[in-house]
């Protein structure tokens, strides 16, 4: 029933997009972006007139201030999305009525086209020769008329013969078209009937607690749950029918989903956009809350979607695929583990709970330091327990989403994607050069007065720290550049932001890069680590 899951997912994604587009945060962000675009356009117009440099400079500062406002609006919108992870699903009915996927037999009526209209039959009136007049009537009129009548009669009979043959062909073609239509209709009806029978078979299998079908159904439910683009939404499910126990192993987003920048501030005297880092304690607190919300949201969606009483107990392990910044190795720690009875969970009023306190109330194990990848004891051993009955793995994004995974791009594709992005943003990109710190470009900002050489570093490894910032600053000085840009897909450490202070450097982490690609290139990218 993969096609049903895909159809339902598309509908859920569109509904979420419509809902998010109407939020106050989205409207505010769009307004700020429009104001920024207007300010930039005004600055460019003023720059064309050498006598209006002062006006150009004023408008330029307004544009840069608007850029900072846009960036801050994006941060506020992201925090709003994270805060609403649990509450947003409470307004959605997660149950899937499989009967709505049945298709009616809708076929266009038979259209014979021009074949439905008989050809006009030849009429003798059109062939009767005119009566002779004048002299012709007196001299040989009868003989001439007989000759004309004979000729007209032969022409009329030939026309009738051709018409009769054409009519026979038309009727034969009409009958052939009718038979083809009826055959096509029978095939269409058979196809729809087979599809509807498959829906009925699947619905019955789910109602009968067939493990494979139950897993498929709840995969559809969780696949409908639309998260922000950079959430992995990768999970494994297993169903133990005798115990009516659903096992869930869910991939959590990395800590980078929490904005590490608190806000951006533009210094007009230094022409510098400074990123103020968010306090590590706040990042940890928000990340713990994200984990708790995803956990409660997933369990809620399963229980609300289960109207047939298939699940009596739910076990949830939340893991994260990421890079350990201390070792540079891929790790997969379990950051939350919970096991709860259906009735116990259903009695909780999720609109009014503190997510972290709620997980602890359910005796769940929740990492106190998930940003440090501190694992918790697992309530279940998924592989061992799931092996007793049935298990299946689902990667929703991989199955139904063709967004490029920035981690999995080849080096050439990665470099081309960044070159395209910065080119669209106005930089003239030089040739890429690969080194220990990733890929390096020497670009040019063609703007008068504020333009000049720009050094760009980009890497897809572990989070960048102060050393990467110092290396970039040194490259900027050596090149006589006016600005440096560091793109770090694996994240940016707080020490890096501290090292930027007072320097004309810009730091771009993974989520920020995804946003830039969406805004400037219309590319919906994702970041999903692979082993």
From TrEMBL:
InterPro entries to which the protein is assigned, alphabetical: Restrct_endonuc_IV_Mrr (IPR007560), Type_IV_Methyl-Rstrct_Enzyme (IPR052906)
Gene Ontology biological process terms in this record: DNA restriction-modification system
Keyword RNA-binding: no
Pfam families tied to this protein: Mrr_cat (PF04471)
Coiled coil stretches, renumbered: 164-205
Keyword list, A-Z: Coiled coil
Restriction endonuclease type IV Mrr domain segment(s): 413-517
GO MF entries: DNA binding; restriction endodeoxyribonuclease activity
Name the UniProt record assigns to this protein: Restriction system protein
